[in-house]
Amino acid sequence: MGFQFDLGFLVYELGIGIRYVPVVFLLSVVPLIIGLLLGTGIAVVRLLSLHPFDKILAMLVIFLRGVPLVLQLTILYLTFSLGFDSLAKALGLAATAKDIPYTFVAIVGLSVNATVYLSEVMRTSLQSVGVGQYEAAYSVGLTTGQTLRRIVLPQALPMAVPLVGSQFISLIKGSAIASLISVVEVINATVYEANGNYKFLEAYVAAGIIYWVLCMGVERLVAWLEARVGIYSRGGVA
Amino acid sequence: MSNIFSLELFIDSFPILLSRIHITLFIVIVALLLGLVLGTCVAVVRLYRVPVLTQMAIVYVSFIRGIPILVLLFIIYIGLPLLVGTIGLNINRWDTLFFVMIAYVVNTAAFLSEILRSAVAGVEKGQTEAAYSVGLTRWQAFYRIVAPQATKIAIPALGNTVVSLLKDTSLAYTLGVIDIIGVINAISSNTHRSLEAYTAAAFIFFGLSAVMEKGFRWVELRLGVKNTTQGSAQKKLAAVGR
Predict the structure, then answer these.
(1) Each residue of A92-135: pLDDT tens digit?
(2) Strand boundaries in chain A, DSSP class E
(3) Pick from A4, A83, A216: which is nearest to B66 by CB?
(4) Taking each helix axis from N to C terminus, what angle separates B147-168 and B21-47, rounded to the nearest 10 degrees?
(5) What's the pLDDT at A135?
(6) How far, in Å, CA of A103 to CA of A207, rounded?
(7) Which of B75, B207, B236 lies closest to A204 in CB terms?
(8) Among A85, A213, B162, B172, which residue's CB has the most CB atoms within a 10 Å radius?
């Protein structure tokens, strides 16, 4: 018995998988944007020590960082399917859990995950800006908001870009876990096609190649972006 | 609320889940140790630019870093028996844990090789030159001068890798390994509920990763690793570790 690998079917599966690339982007770009916005908010709250929110958010971030994504998604999915109907009834909505696509649940779960990690990314990036910069900004009469927007964020950005980029790649890879809560994305689509002929290896290899190409593309994009935002910090120690 | 989440079931599931903790820890430890061995080999190949092997190592690391661990698990679980079958060996009936292990070793080694490589590259060349100038041999220079400094650079990233390895093991259940998460199926077939057990598993994973992070923090202090909020080389490396 030789090693059987159907190259023709692999190519066919690649064609199937590519059609689901938009789903992967939906599952990674939307959480990335939500995560950046909320994460920056959390980072600012924690940096400015806004009592008592900073302590609560810190606890939440530390807890969620320790929980695997698959558990976060499963718990959210179960809570959603158990709790949505009674919540909808209480609010007088006609919708039931069946009406809401699982993709939505996955996006919410991935967004929570992204927020947690990106808040840490933004926090270290903001911290990397020296305290003298804040003091100088205050001394010329800028408000806290102005200081953050005009002085601190532009300097924190070159530090944040590679870290956000690697988070984006983690999100693309993490979106694969959505297949476990029955979201039809690249993996489920290719494996479904293989149900007829049991050529599951080709299906998974095709899915792997698609993710690989996506991640390499994002890596290139981040490297290009890094060169652009770092333009003002050339020289010096960095 | 009680029909959504039962506190009693939540508490009851802890002993059952904890009874399978050794499987999870076993995967983490073996994957880390074998991953370090394989990762070191890959890093050496790339640092010394061994022809042909370097190109293979680059593709290997890039591929592993680019595909989800879920896909890798299935590729190895389905593909390895087929591949080994070509030399007439039948490993179809081998324990699933074996395939899971291979997948995590292959995955961890790729990340570790990147960490080790950039840690060694992060030590200034002048250090090696200075070592040679006082008459140390090539091995002595590496072992006494470069390695201790590289270790300091690598430790924070290594810590990140171990914690994400722990969290990645949560996917082993997809192949039927009965670890902390795999055992939840057994619980839910009895009670017809699984939310409580999954929540309990979340707390266990949080506890484990908190302990690991504390451990690495302690090692960092002992080794005198500089505060990680400073030093851009370390921070870039920490990103590699995920």
Answers:
(1) 777 777 777 889 999 999 999 999 999 999 998 888 888 888 88
(2) none
(3) A216
(4) 140
(5) 87
(6) 18
(7) B75
(8) B172
Q: Under an 8 A CB cutoff, do B68 and A176 touch?
A: yes
Q: How far apart are CA A217 and CA A213, in angstroms?
A: 6
With a CB cutoff of 8 Å and minimum separation 6, the contacts of A188 are: A179, A182
Peptide bond into A52 cis (omega under 30): yes
Using the predicted structure, report yes or no on whether residue B230 has a pLDDT greater than 70.
Answer: no
Å between A105 CA and nearest CA of chain B: 15
Residue-wise pLDDT for B90-132, tens only, equals: 887 888 999 999 999 999 999 999 999 999 988 888 999 999 9
**pTM for the whole thing?**
0.87
ipTM of this complex: 0.87
- Compute the nearest-CA separation of B116 from chain A (Å): 18
| Phi-psi label, residue B176: left if phi above 0, alpha if psi -120 to 50, beta otherwise | left
Tokens of B17: 């889940």
| Backbone phi and psi for residue B89, each to the nearest 5 degrees, phi listed first | -105, 130
Residues B69, B72, B74, B80: what is their CA dihedral angle, to the nearest 10 degrees? -150
What integer is the mean pLDDT of A12-24? 94
* pLDDT reported for residue B77: 94
Question: HSE of A228 in the Cβ direction (CA atoms, 13 Å)?
Answer: 7
What is the distance between the alpha carbons of residues A26 and B98, in angstroms, rounded to a whole number?
35
| Contact assignment for B181 to A71 by CB distance below 8 Å | yes
Residue B168 CB neighbour total at 10 angstroms: 25
- Separation CA B60–CA B66 (nearest Å): 10
Instruction: Return the beta strands (E) in A143-216 as ranges.
Output: none
Burial environment of residue B114 by CB neighbours within 10 A (0 to 12, 13 to 18, 19 or more):
buried
A207-216 burial: b if 16+ Cβ within 10 Å, else e = bbbbbbebbe
Q: Which residue of A has its CA nearest to B228?
A: A124
Among A77-91, A111-125, B127-141, the least confident range? A77-91
| Tokens of residue B175, six digits | 């192949």
Q: Would you call A66 and B72 a contact, using CB atoms and an 8 Å cutoff?
A: no
Mutate to test the interface with B, among A173, A175, A192, A222 (most CBs of B within 10 A): A173
The answer to whether the CB of A132 falls within 8 A of the CB of A100 is no
Cβ pair B71:A208 closer than 8 A = yes
Taking 90 as the threshold, does the pLDDT of residue A12 lie above it?
Answer: yes
Which pLDDT tens digit goes with each residue over B146-191?
989 998 889 989 999 999 999 999 999 999 899 999 899 888 888 8
